[in-house]
Model the fold of this input.
Amino acid sequence: MFVLPDLPYPHDALAPFVSGETLRTHHGKHHKTYVEKTNELAAQAGLAGRPLEDVVREAYKRGDKGLFNNAAQAWNHAFFWQCMRPPGGAAPSGDLIRAIDESFDGIEALKEAFVEEGFGHFASGWVWIVMGSEGLKVISTHDADDTLVREGLFPLLVCDLWEHAYYLDYKNDRKAFLERWFDNVANWDFAAAQLAASDGQGDAFRYPPPEKDAPSSGPEDRPRA
Done:
């Protein structure tokens, strides 16, 4: 079964740009619920024990919207936690800043494209920086949709556009959330590692593998995936 991954930082580490209250609710309630529902639906679909990436793709291929929505949201959130770090981290450098300069003519142009795409996205979803065949680009996806089911796109960074990601801190001001998120907590070291992985250098992000269930009862019982 899948477990809820721990945050890579304390709940209050991103304040004041993302509050501890938001993270406790977002991670401990929203993400937790997606993981629990994924375990339930994956078992029903005969996919228990498979990596989450496989579950997302198989649910999409089968048209199993309930499983896809929950599994993709579980994956998206785990990726999203890695896309943030406490304020004051390193700016883009090396191959990443060169890719940004080639595709956007600088970090400020990338920020403008990112904020515009995210702010203009109707209703819930995600705004991504991805590597494609023509270099870096910014896209948004609706609801649970993600890059795992989109050929030729490799995710570097994502920000959550669902209201539960920002409403406690910013009310309905999604644009301010995106601007402050990009400037202060975007994890460019993680984006650089993803960029390298897109070129075969190092490992890309993967959701923690499913754990075996606890033994039922008796010394002879074996855990089941």
Observations:
- Residues 214-225 have pLDDT under 50 and may be disordered.
